[in-house]
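Input structure tokens:
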């Protein structure tokens, strides 16, 4: 068994941009952060767009899953997701996750509808090889940091900083393939390694 998930990897251009955003936020928040707040910043090399978390996975179904995705991806075109704002889950008032993603209005776009279709296709492939379906809709975002303690205090810092109200000038994330990523849990954190990826048709 391996621990795995399906994800879209970042290009070097996007990864460099995300790194700069993180550095700017760290510098800004360092001057204002209450001691009660504990933030764990995600290493830029580990940032990705999760499509589906698989969890413990039987290695015998890895190849059948790849083959199933290859079939349905023949009918899927590449999708562009603008990375234009910061947000917090479950809320910006008391976040546990700080993320970068598309503006709310993007959810009504053709690209967003095609991403929903892609996610549904992936779910179907996963279910066909034995994974339980996930009824939650895909919320496309890149996790920048996890707030381990002091979420409410951090929410106040976010509100006062104004960063949630300022649009980001960033490139778009191109969804051109989906990779199977193996996750090894170690004392220093998770270590990711790509096992394969399947490209969309165009």
């Amino acid at each position: 068994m391996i621990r795995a998930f399906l994800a879209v990897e970042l290009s070097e251009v996007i990864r460099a941009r995300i790194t700069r955003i993180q550095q700017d936020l760290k510098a800004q928040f360092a001057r204002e952060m209450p001691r009660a707040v504990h933030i764990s910043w995600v290493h830029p090399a580990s940032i990705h767009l999760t499509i589906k978390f698989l969890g413990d996975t039987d290695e015998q179904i890895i190849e059948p899953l790849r083959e199933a995705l290859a079939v349905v991806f023949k009918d899927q075109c590449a999708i562009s997701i603008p990375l234009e704002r910061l947000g917090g889950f479950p809320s910006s008032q008391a976040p546990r996750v700080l993320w970068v993603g598309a503006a709310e209005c993007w959810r009504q776009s053709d690209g967003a509808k095609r991403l929903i279709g892609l996610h549904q296709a992936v779910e179907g492939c996963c279910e066909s090889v034995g994974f339980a379906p996930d009824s939650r809709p895909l919320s496309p975002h890149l996790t920048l940091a996890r707030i381990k303690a002091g979420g409410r205090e951090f929410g106040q810092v976010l509100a006062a900083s104004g960063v949630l109200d300022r649009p980001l000038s960033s490139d778009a994330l191109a969804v051109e393939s989906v990779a199977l990523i193996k996750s090894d849990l170690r004392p220093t954190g998770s270590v990711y390694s790509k096992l394969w990826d399947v490209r969309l048709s165009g």
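The helical segments are 12-30, 62-72, 110-128, 151-161. The chain has a mean pLDDT of 93.
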